[in-house]
Design brief:
seven-stranded mixed beta sheet; Metallo-beta-lactamase, Chain A; binds zinc ion; 242 residues; globular; alpha/beta; 32% strand
Length: 242
């Protein structure tokens, strides 16, 4: 499985960093986790075929994870009509917000693309990858749904944390119970100090940080002597084979 980190910034774009968007390639299939980067622009600049995109999974409805969707949907509706891509959304708010883009003039456009609202548990399995939604508490203060994902493809399994809470108590427990090939963890919302025990307990071959913020990168590096693992801090365009 090949991961390409098209957007690695925290809630705001930074110089050289788009907001969060990660591409998974498994064989010929392409999947995206979050679409906070200008995804349609990335598709054209990097010659990524729309037809290979099987599904897009959004961890939560914040704009830095979803704002690339409208133009991407427009491209698939009007200009890439062979596409058959599933859109997996975390709540009705985002579903309703995107509804006009999906339903615009159905008699003239691609009607094969559809949004779905997923729920916790395994919600996607196309025989190539399986995706399980694990609830987090990133927006629990306003009763909104947010998720981490466990992604399984053949004998590979990964965790994408999405955004977490300040206390890091919602870092997925399964990370310390099962063996993973990679954990892709955000690096913005939590205190590094409170996260260290759980990060150290994670059973993963690779620890990868995305959704990064400069002050948290500095704090993480200051804590290097307390960490029992090595890690990668991603930049836009980075490719990691898992
Ligand atoms: Zn975010
Ligand atoms: Zn967020």
């Amino acid at each position: 499985m090949k991961l390409t980190f098209w957007g690695t910034s925290h809630g705001l774009p930074e110089k050289g960093r788009y907001c969060t968007c990660t591409m998974l390639e498994v064989g010929d299939n392409i999947y995206f986790i979050d679409a906070g980067a200008p995804l349609a622009d990335i598709m054209v600049n990097h010659d990524i075929p729309y037809e290979r995109v099987k599904a897009i999974f959004i961890t939560h409805a914040h704009l830095d994870h979803s704002s690339g969707l409208p133009v991407f949907i427009g491209m698939q509706k009007w200009f890439k009509r062979d596409c058959d891509t599933g859109y997996y959304l975390p709540d009705e708010f985002l579903y309703n917000g995107l509804h006009p883009f999906f339903t615009d003039r159905p008699e003239e456009s691609n009607t094969k693309i559809h949004p779905h609202v997923y729920q916790k548990g395994v919600f996607y399995d196309d025989g190539v990858i399986q995706v399980e939604a694990i609830p987090t508490q990133h927006m629990s203060n306003i009763n909104r749904l947010t998720y981490a994902f466990k992604v399984t493809a053949g004998d590979k399994s990964l965790i994408f944390t999405g955004d977490l809470s300040d206390e890091f108590q919602d870092f997925p427990e399964v990370a310390s119970k099962e063996n993973f090939d990679a954990v892709v963890c955000e690096l913005t919302h939590f205190s590094i100090e409170s996260a260290i025990p759980k990060l150290n307990a994670a059973k993963t071959k690779k620890m990868i940080f995305n959704h990064v913020r400069d002050d948290k990168i500095a704090l993480l590096k200051e804590s290097n002597d307390k960490l029992n693992f090595s890690y990668t801090i991603t930049n836009d365009g980075d490719i990691i084979e898992v």
